[in-house]
Amino acid sequence: MRTRNQLDIYGDFSDFYDLYVGDWLEDLPFYLEYAKQVQTPILEVGAGSGRLTIPLARTGASVIAVDSSSSMLAILRSRLDKEPIEVRERIQLVHSDICSLLLEDRHELIVVPFYTFNYFLTPEIQKSALERFAQHLAPQGRVLIDVFLPLSRIQRCPAEPVLKVDTVDAATGNNVRGWNIYSIDKVRQIEIRRHVFKVTGKDGTVLERDFTTQRRYFYPSELESLFADCGFSVEAAFTGYEKKEADDDSEQLLYLLRQKASG
Ligand SMILES: C[S@@+](CC[C@H](N)C(=O)[O-])C[C@H]1O[C@@H](n2cnc3c(N)ncnc32)[C@H](O)[C@@H]1O
Description:
By secondary structure, the chain is α/β, with parallel strands linked by helices. The protein has helices spanning 4-7, 17-21, 28-35, 53-58, 70-80, 85-89, 123-135, 151-155, 220-229; strands at 42-45, 63-67, 91-95, 107-112, 137-148, 162-168, 175-185, 190-200, 206-216, 232-238, 252-259. The protein is globular, with a radius of gyration of 19 Å.
C-alpha cells in the first residue's frame, strides 16, 4: 500500500521548485511542435507548478494538468490567477495520482515532461501509469516521455554537496541557497537526492530545510521492453530537445510512443 508521503512526493520540494528550475524552458519548442498537431486537449502528466502548462496554454493549446501533489497544484493555481481569462480557460487542473486517473475523454497527445516518469519508482507504478496512458489515449494518439539516466553520477557519484540554487526569492526578498547531496542505489537503480535549502531572511534569520527525493533511472533497453509489455511501440527516440540521435553516453532520452495495433 502506498503512503500519503509517497503520493505527495513533492510536498517539501514545492516550496522551492520554482526557484530550483528558475526560468528554464528549453523543452517548450519541442512540445509545441507536437501540440500544434492535435485537436484534443493535451494530457500533461505531472504538470507540477505549471512551468510548461502555462506557456503551452499561452500559445493556444488546451491542457489537462494532472498532478498528485496538492502543493504543486496550489502553486499552479496561484500562477493561473495572474493569467488572462482565455489562458485560464484552456487549463483544467486534476488532482490525481496518474495510477488512479479516470477521465472520460481520450487525448491525441499525452506528455510526461521533465523526468516525471523517473518518479515512478516501482514496476507496479510504471506499468499502472502506462496502462492509464493507454486508457486515455485516442486511437493514433501519441505519448511523449522525457526520462533521464545519470550516467556520470552512476560512474562517480559526487561526494560533496552540489550547489544548485543561489538566488534571491523575488516574492520574499529572502536569499535562498540549495544543495543536492547525491547517492546511487545501483541495485534498485534509484538516485537518491538529499536536498538542503538555507533561507536567509532580510533580518539575518536563517531557516534550514532538509528532505529527500528519489528517482528511478532506466537504461534504454529495459524501458523499451516495459513500453512493449504495456502495448506501446517506440515511434522515435531522441536525446535533447533538438532531437539528436541517442548514443551510449546519452543522459537524457525522449520517447515518442504509439499504441501497438491489437490483434
Ligand atoms: C519533476 S516535476 C515536473 C513538474 C513540471 N511538469 C515541470 O516540468 O516543471 C514532477 C511532477 O510529477 C508529479 N508526480 C510524481 N509522481 C506522480 C504520480 N504518480 N501521479 C501524478 N503526478 C506525479 C510530482 O508531484 C511533480 O509535480
